[in-house]
Amino acid sequence: MPASETTVGPRGSLSSLMAGKRGLVMGVANDHSIAWGVAKTLHEHGAELAFTYQGENFGRRVKPLADSVGAELLLPADVQDEASLEAVCEALDKSWGKVDFLIHAIAFSDKNELQGRFADTTRANFLKSLDISCYSLVDMSRRILPLMSDGGSIVTMSYLGAQRIMPNYNVMGVAKAALEASVRYLANDLGPEGIRVNALSPGPMRTLAGSAVGGARRVYKTVADNSPMRANATLEHIGGTAMWLCSDYGASTTGEVIFVDGGYHAIGMPHLENLPKVEG
After folding, report:
1. 177 with 163: CB under 8 angstroms?
2. Cα–Cα nearest to 25, from 11, 6, 42, 3
3. Percent of the chain with pLDDT over 70
4. Does the pTM of the predicted model rise above 0.70?
5. Binding region
6. Assign residue 230 a region: left if phi > 0, alpha if psi is -120 to 50, beta otherwise?
7. Is residue 65 a contact partner of residue 42, using CB atoms and an 8 Å limit?
8. Residues 6+ apart with CB under 8 A from 208
C-alpha cells in the first residue's frame, strides 16, 4: 500500500483522524502560541475549529490565523465575565449544536511577579492568577458540558512548575498545581458523560506567555541541554499529543498530566558534562 494510503486502523487514514469533529480553541495569541500549534495540527487532520480572543488587539492577531484554517467562528471571550462565556456557548450551540473538544490554553500573572520570591506575591495577583489560569477551566468545562452530548475531550496546558520549584515561576506554579488537581476532579465528574479531561505539560516554549517568566531563555537552554532527548518540544509535538487525546484513540485516557518535554521531568539533576567542574 502506498505511504499516502497507509491507515492507522478501522477509522481511516491518519490524515482524517479528526474528520467530523468540531472544537473550541481558547488561548491563541499569535502563531507561536501553544494553542495555535494544537489548532493547526487538529485542522490538518480534519477538525473544524472555533476560536476565542480577548480584546481587539488579540482579535486582530487571531483573525488571519483563524481564516487560514477556515474557521468561521471567531468569538470574543473574557473568562472573568460570565456573560461573555455564556455568549460563546450560545454561539457554538446556534452554529454547531454540539462540540467534540475544548482546548484550554489560558493563563495569567502579573509579569512583575514572575521574578524574585514567591513569598512576595500580592493577594490581588494571587487571586487573579488562580481565577484566570485555573477556575476558567472549571467554568468553561461546566458551560460546555451540554454541548458535548456525544461525549468529548477537554485538554488544558500545565507546566513542570506545578510539581517542582522552577525559577521565577512563582504564583503560576501554584495556579498550575490547582489546574492539575482540577483536571482530576473534572475527569471524575464528567467521565460518566463520556468526557475525558487531561492536561499537557510541555517544556519551556518560546511563546509570548513563556517570555514573561524571568530567566526564560536560560531555562529553555537548560532543558534542551539536559532532557533525555537533548531538545525542547516543538509546537508540532504538542499538537500531535493533543490530537491523540481529542481523537477516538484517546477514548480511555482521562485525569492525566502528560509531559511533552523531551523527558526533562524525569531528570534529577543536570548531566555531568553540564555541571561546574570541581577540583580535587
Report:
1. yes
2. 42
3. 90
4. yes
5. 27, 33-34, 54, 78-79, 106, 176
6. left
7. no
8. 29, 30, 32, 33
Cell of 79: 473568562
Instruction: Tell me if residue 159 is catalytic.
Output: yes
What's the CA angle centered on 165, arms 216 and 129, to 5 degrees?
Answer: 75
Q: How far apart are the first and last CA of the chain?
A: 62
Active-site annotation holds for 169: yes
Which phi and psi angles does 149 have, rounded to 5°?
-70, -20
Residue carrying the nine cell digits 506554579: 173
Split at pLDDT 50, 70, 90, the class of 2 is: very low
The C-alpha atoms of residue 5 and residue 17 are separated, in whole angstroms, by: 13
Catalytic-labelled residue, pool 169, 185, 249, 264: 169
What are the structural domains of the chain?
22-261 (3.40.50.720)
3-class secondary-structure state, position 19 = coil
For residue 255, what is its C-alpha cell?
A: 485525569
Give the model confidence (pLDDT) of 20-31 as tens digits. 999 999 999 999
Using CA atoms, how far apart are residues 174 and 192, in angstroms rounded to an integer? 29
Binding residues for NAD(+): 27, 33-34, 54, 78-79, 106, 176
Partners of residue 7 on adjacent β-strands: 13
Read off the pLDDT of residues 191-235 as tens digits, 9 standing for 90 and up: 999 999 999 999 886 655 555 555 667 887 888 898 998 888 899
The 3-state DSSP class for residue 66 equals helix
